[in-house]
TrEMBL record:
Signal peptide: none annotated. This is ATP-dependent helicase. SUPFAM superfamilies: P-loop containing nucleoside triphosphate hydrolases. Residues 823-939 form a coiled coil. It comes from Caviibacterium pharyngocola. Keywords: ATP-binding, Coiled coil, Helicase, Hydrolase, Nucleotide-binding. InterPro entries: DEXDc_RapA, Helicase_ATP-bd, Helicase_C-like, P-loop_NTPase, SNF2-like_sf, SNF2/RAD54-like_C, SNF2_N. Pfam families: Helicase_C, SNF2-rel_dom. Residues 47-220 form the Helicase ATP-binding domain. It comes from the Bacteria. Residues 402-588 form the Helicase C-terminal domain. One of its GO terms (molecular function) is helicase activity.
Amino acid sequence: MNITPYHARYFANELICRRTDDNRLSQSLFDAKVDLNPHQIDAALFALKNPLQEGVLLADEVGLGKTIEAGLVLCQMWAERKRKLLIVCPAILRKQWANELYEKFDLPTLVVDKTVVNQAMKGVSGAKLLNFCKNQIRRKVLIVSHQYATKEMNTFKQFDWDFVVIDEAHKMRNAYKADNKMGQAMRKAFGGKRKLLLTATPLQNSLMELYGLSTLLDEHIFGDRKFFQREFVRRGNLPELKSRMATFVKRTLRKNVLEYIRYTERKTFTQEFTPTDSEHLLYQQISEFLRKESSYALPKTHKHLTALILRKLLASSSLAVLGTLRAIHSRLLALQQAQELPEFELFDGEDLTDEDIEIDELEQEEGEESVAEELNKTALAKEIAEIESFIALAESLTVDSKVIALLTALQTGFENMAALNAPQKVIIFTESVRTQQYLFQFLQENGYQNNVVMFSGSNNDPQAVEIYQSWLAKNAGSPKVTGSVDVDKRTALIEHFRDNAQIMIATEAASEGVNLQFCSLLINYDLPWNPQRVEQRIGRCHRYGQKFDVVVINFLNKRNKADQRELELLTEKFKLFQGVLGASDEVLGEIESGVDIENWIAKIYATCRTEEEIQQAFDELQAKFADQISDRLQETKNALVDSFDQSVLERLKVMTQNRLNEMEYWFWSLSRFALDNKAQFNQTDWYFLLQDCPQVGIPLGRYLLPRKERNPQIQGYEYRLNHQLGEWCIEQGLQAFTPDCRLEFDYTNYSEKISLLEHYQGKSGWLRLDKINVQSNAENQERLVFTVCDEQGNALDAEFAQKLFLLSANVQNSTPKAPLAFKQLNQSELEKAKSQIQQENSALLMEKSRQINAWAKDQMQAAEDNIKEIKDELREKEKEAALADNIKQQIELQEEIAKLRKALRKARNELDDVQDEIADQEMALLRELKAKVNQTMTEEKVFEIAWHII
């Protein structure tokens, strides 16, 4: 096919056009390295819909891809050269975000914290973070933790961010409260900036949580706190609440997408084991020791956390607790010699989770402080002896009942895998690094030699290092190597598990940010007390893309009543292990972050001794999480998804595929034009070999067009719009020389039938392509406008022009002059396009102005309601005074009545002033809004040709 400069210039403009319609996401969809579902595209379009809004809340249920939706938005911003982008998320998810954006959208990211800033800004005095961000902004998507953003609020508020993503936004649901430090900091740091809030649980136990999230987005969605409470919480004005939410909340449930997302089933088995008398004795003795009010073994400043982790280690394996007992023993001996060791050496090498730390922080907030006490040498000596007896008993154990049961569990699991014809892969989760190492050695010696791999927070064991080095050598020069040791190690270990190993033994570090669709057997060797962590583990395997039913095996100690009730709670109440969907957010949402229930269970283990006490405590816990959601709260939750429209998603699915097909054609053809004589193109397998470097920094080699099926053995660079070479090719197209001329399009040799063009074989006409640039403070946009007519002057639509450029063409020397009627038609098309742009933007303006009007109305009503409340209270007090027969009571009531009358007069006198002030604020907001949408439209001729089809 002969691709002319006119083809190239048109294709380049199509590829980078800043749209505002349903094709807005074209660039990000093309660059995404993930199969996208219609609801994700719909959510991303919703987030980008109105640039006049300060932001929206995406609240899809767990597992539907909120990170993907946010990634689409960020990728589109990047493509549109809006690159001042920030992600604020829990600390534990920072690397996961970096991995997801790199792997799925090829976006450059940087995790920013105090250490990174200090290392990068050595020798710089003053505002290090400010200068650091100035250096990195626009070059990378910055990622920070909630805590760091809170602490550095004043620095982050100084930047004019194009988009801020706040993940796990429900953690700031109390942002409306003055004492909510994190929520208040987020409001101050990012007020007025475009934001995207992400949470699976926008509403848990109170409608006020929704109000809190709204203030995080925009101060002017609802009136003040009292008005919201009165209007929506007490009066239950759900139609109005639903109307308001529709503009800023988008929510999809798993049950809504079952038509096009196939979820496999979950199946559960319980692997019971019975500890020997010696094992059970060790458990009981240490449990009793941990119940002591005070001891030298447990650091006072972190007693709760230390006891919690010890109990988990004790349940995990005798070897795990033995290592900690020895560390405690060393610490006590050092204390005896007045050389106390650092407290957390007790858990050196263990993977502490965010929940562990949060539990510890909660304890500190409750006011437990370390108080200096005189050392009781007798008590210390007794405690050392006690620990030594525990160590001796642990060392004397000759049987590990639990690890023997693991062999049975593996056999059961693999038999089920064989029955399902599923891959013989299993991930075993433990809560202890020591247990992990013990299981690794045990399985190597019991039938699984060279078939086991470990995954932890550090991944520094000899096997992991060897696998990583081998992976680096294998992928040297490949874009798969990111340069981040942590990221690449994780990738290497996952690939080794997928390709070479049968078993992966993982700590909690693998419960987030790891995708294991190729594995459908999961063993909870240690079962967390937090249901959300259990769900996260299962979600590594039971997710979109899993082809087989997922088998979950849970270990159960038959001699431990608390363990039995815990498993019953997770199975029966939280329904974690059965069905297609697993635990729904309506259940998990009740328990907030999961720390509450973990604390409850920890308390049961710590305080209950008899079976009766354990039964009663778990009965109370189960009742606590039974049915605490009110009907009104459930109605509101339902209202969040009431607008779900399957037909919209079906339309998006078809439209998106068509658009991607078009973009593939444009990008491939443009690349052939730009790289003529620089590359060899293979259209069978959709790649080209770059042989001549067009620009510094662009490597030679094979470049693969995305989304095309090819021989999997063909490897190379992924060729995308935001790749340096892709951007260079687009720039060549934009700069192509396109003077007025005649183009002869060849339909005769085109391989497919295009009815629209077939009718015009042998005919001619004129064609012009213009670009309208729209500039405003809110958002810049572009629109391509085709003007086409035949030689008789009959207007043809834009689709004719788009189809025309599918054909090969030759540039003719003649340049016939277009008739006057064509110029008039061109002006008419441009005016029509401008009018449509104005109408679309006016609709967005009206939507935002309605929000401001509603806010002002809320505020006005709040002032009037205040008077009504005082009047109602005054009438009640007057009734009480009339009926009171006690002189003292009458005097007290008359004093209260006098105060209320004074307050009523003041409120009435101030009503006009308050309402005038609200009206002034409303006008100021509307003027600010008008300034944002004040548009400047300019026209730019791209090219004009006379066309002829042969």
